[in-house]
Design a protein that fits this description.
Elements lengths: L12 E3 L35 E6 L2 E6 L1 E3 L3 H16 L5 H26 L10 H15 L7 H7 L4 H12 L3 H19 L4 H7 L5 H12 L3 H15 L1
Helix pairs in contact: 1-2, 3-5, 6-7, 6-9, 7-8
Length: 242
């Protein structure tokens, strides 16, 4: 989280933590999670907002606080080159600093371009369908398991017509809003089934399904097994491995 706003970091996402702002974790990370990170300074005054516009001469750079990376391998390569440069024994420390700064600058430029492409090359104050969908997806990720979410409620919260929001969401993600909500709830249910001894009815409520029967119907549709069968299969596999 940053300044009290929570984010869900998943594969191919990035986040910038701005100086002199409050940030920290809100939930234990997965054992399989890995990420690249670095610290950098900008030789200019910044106004830190959700999508910060930094002006240098006649060029405007957008440093988004959080977003998705479509070409993740390019960023992985740049970060590996940055790490390699930081550990390389150059003739002088100044040479290493110059090269590391160059790679960091490229990464910042690429993040800016990535954000501009996803938002239709608009100014930071503008917003396109990609920006709308990103905000809705983030809200769903944070609240799907703890709140009742409907398309009408999402549309009203984000000040859009329900039909329009449904259309652009499907166009941008390839799935419906309801499918997105169900996917997140099912993944939470899977985790609870394997990490707790809670009854299936309890798990239904904890993962955002108010009706246990509806939960079991949706779970089987997504996994081809019932919640109980899913839990049993996991433990059965581990028993066979011993």
């Amino acid at each position: 989280m940053q300044d009290g706003r929570e984010y869900h970091l998943e594969p191919n996402t990035f986040m910038l933590l701005f100086p002199q702002h409050i940030h920290g974790g809100t939930y234990p990370a997965s054992d399989k999670q890995s990420h690249f990170w670095c610290h950098f300074y900008l030789p200019m005054q910044m106004i830190c907002t959700s999508n910060t516009a930094v002006t240098c001469s006649d060029t405007e750079y957008v440093l988004p606080e959080f977003g998705y990376i479509q070409k993740a391998e390019k960023f992985r390569l740049l970060f590996r080159q940055l790490i390699d440069a930081s550990q390389n024994k150059y003739p002088s420390p100044a040479s290493r600093e110059y090269i590391c700064n160059a790679y960091t600058t490229i990464i910042i430029h690429e993040l800016c371009q990535e954000w501009m492409r996803q938002n239709g090359n608009t100014a930071p104050s503008g917003i396109t369908s990609s920006g709308i969908v990103e905000k809705v997806r983030e809200y769903i990720r944070l609240h799907a398991c703890t709140e009742k979410i409907s398309i009408a409620e999402l549309a009203a919260r984000h000040h859009y017509h329900a039909g329009y929001l449904s259309e652009i969401f499907h166009k941008e993600t390839g799935m419906t809003i309801i499918s997105c909500i169900q996917n997140i709830r099912i993944e939470e249910a899977k985790k609870l089934l394997l990490t707790t001894d809670a009854h299936v009815d309890t798990i239904a409520h904890l993962s955002g399904f108010g009706d246990p029967k509806y939960f079991m119907k949706v779970f089987k549709k997504h996994t081809n097994v019932t919640p109980t069968e899913y839990r049993y299969a996991y433990y059965h596999i581990h028993e066979n491995n011993h």
